[in-house]
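Blackboard transcription, Thursday session:
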Amino acid sequence: MTRIAIDMDDVMADTSLKIVQELNKKLNTNYQIPDLLNDIKLREEFYANYSQNNSFLWEKGFFEDIEVKPNAVEVIRQLQNHYEIFIVSAATEFPESMKEKLNWLEKHFPFIGWTHTVFCGHKYLIQADFLIDDHEKNLKTFSGTPILFSAPHNLHLTGYERVNTWDDVAAKFL
Amino acid sequence: MTRIAIDMDDVMADTSLKIVQELNKKLNTNYQIPDLLNDIKLREEFYANYSQNNSFLWEKGFFEDIEVKPNAVEVIRQLQNHYEIFIVSAATEFPESMKEKLNWLEKHFPFIGWTHTVFCGHKYLIQADFLIDDHEKNLKTFSGTPILFSAPHNLHLTGYERVNTWDDVAAKFL
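(Written on the board underneath:)
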């Protein structure tokens, strides 16, 4: 059966939205996702601030209550009828995150389960036919076919097949 | 570079010893590892009891203070000079275990790091040349060369290259 590996942050989960909210709280700013998408200069300023102020990623609770991306649940449930689905998240950098990510998956995607969940650092040792991910570092070293899921930080990337939404994923695979 | 995937429980860590201790505490028994190794009937009784009384695996703290197997640290450190080493542990079944396993690795094997640590369910999607593991379910579905690390529960297995100690691993790979 064709195997699809699916990343969590900014693919299944709207992690960028949570990051924007946390950074706004921390710096008393008012960044908004649509503005970041439309304004390259603002986006560069945002990511410069973020790289200096991202300790909340290591704090308890960050990964527990992130919003699910629109239609992710329904499309992944349907994909599971035709493909072997594994969730592959680069989570070992964040020791507190893994239990929270399991809880999150159990809450929103109870049909996946721990047997098909992988938390790792490097993803290049994952054997799958497709990897749907938002980070070039994961896609460019992947041995199967990489699929880039659009996120504010990867809009400049070219050279990858790109999907913008879970409807795009459904159109490609279903 | 040749890649070796190494399991944690009963390969790097003496998990069977901890299990025996926890079960003795729970059932007020006095099982000892050498007796279990020598006596098949006792071993069967032990594993029957264990399968009914293993809730401690899901409790906080179980995986934090397990003893390191003799020479594991020194041999893995040397392997790292010649091979790409990944730690691959079937840990997603135990939500509390992953932070504890990261702490344990950081304490005893600080030269590995989160980038080369994988927590998963099924291991058959791991791409490596060798897998050193104590469980047949992981070895028989592995796409590279499986190496069976002896543990009380796998003494009956045949058909795999077997190592009994980390000195055996060193003799094979170094």
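Lecturer's comment: The longest helix of chain B spans residues 15-27.
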